[in-house]
Amino acid sequence: QGYQGMVDGGDNIVEVSWESVSSILQVGGTVIGSARCKSFRTHEGRLQAAYNLVQRGITNLCVIGGDGSLTGANLFREEWSGLLEELAEKGKIDAEAVKKYAYLNIVGMVGSIDNDFCGTDMTIGTDSALHRIIEVVDAIMTTAQSHQRTFVLEVMGRHCGYLALVSALACGADWVFIPEYPPEEGWEDTMCVKLSE
C-alpha cells in the first residue's frame, strides 16, 4: 500500500518470489496496492517507516509515483541518517544498526498517465491510458455515426496535452484542444468551418 504499508509495517512488507509475481502481466493497475499516506508526511510517520525498514534490513527503495511520491522519497532520503540517530537515542535500534544501515538508496520511477516528466520518454501508465482512450473512441464512433452526432471527449492529463494530442491523431479526431496551445479568439467560427468542410 505504498508509503502507508511502509509506515504500518507488519504484513505490508513482504518478500516476493517468482511464484508471487506469476501471471500478473495481464493484471491492470497496481497489484501491490496504492494509498495516499498522511502519516508519511509527518516526521513521526517517517520515523516509524525507517524503523520498519531497518528491522528488515531494507536500505534500497524503488518508488513509483508522481510528484508527491517522489518528493516524499527525496525527503525521506535527506532525513534518513537523522531518523536512524533518533531511533538509536530512543533505544529502538543499536549503534551498530545505525552504522550498518547508514545509507538509503532510492530509485525513482515516474508513475503518471500525464507523460509530463522531463528526462523520460514515457511515464509509467501513459501507454495504458492511451490504449484505453482509443478503445473508448472506437466504441463511441459507431454510435456517433448511427445517430449522426458530434461527440466531445475529454481526456485526463492535467497541464500536459500529450494524451489528448496523440489520441486525437490515433483516432482521427476533427478538432483537439490542448493546454500548450490555447484556442485563439474566434475559434468557434474557425472550428465550425473546418467541421462543415
Automatic annotation (TrEMBL):
It catalyses: beta-D-fructose 6-phosphate + ATP = beta-D-fructose 1,6-bisphosphate + ADP + H(+). One of its GO terms (biological process) is fructose 6-phosphate metabolic process. One of its GO terms (molecular function) is monosaccharide binding. Keywords: Cytoplasm, Glycolysis, Kinase, Magnesium, Metal-binding, Transferase. One of its GO terms (cellular component) is 6-phosphofructokinase complex. Residues 1-184 form the Phosphofructokinase domain. Pathway: Carbohydrate degradation; glycolysis; D-glyceraldehyde 3-phosphate and glycerone phosphate from D-glucose: step 3/4. Its cofactor is Mg(2+). InterPro entries: ATP_PFK (IPR022953), Phosphofructokinase_dom (IPR000023), PKF_sf (IPR035966). This is PFKAP protein. It comes from Tyrannus savana (Fork-tailed flycatcher).
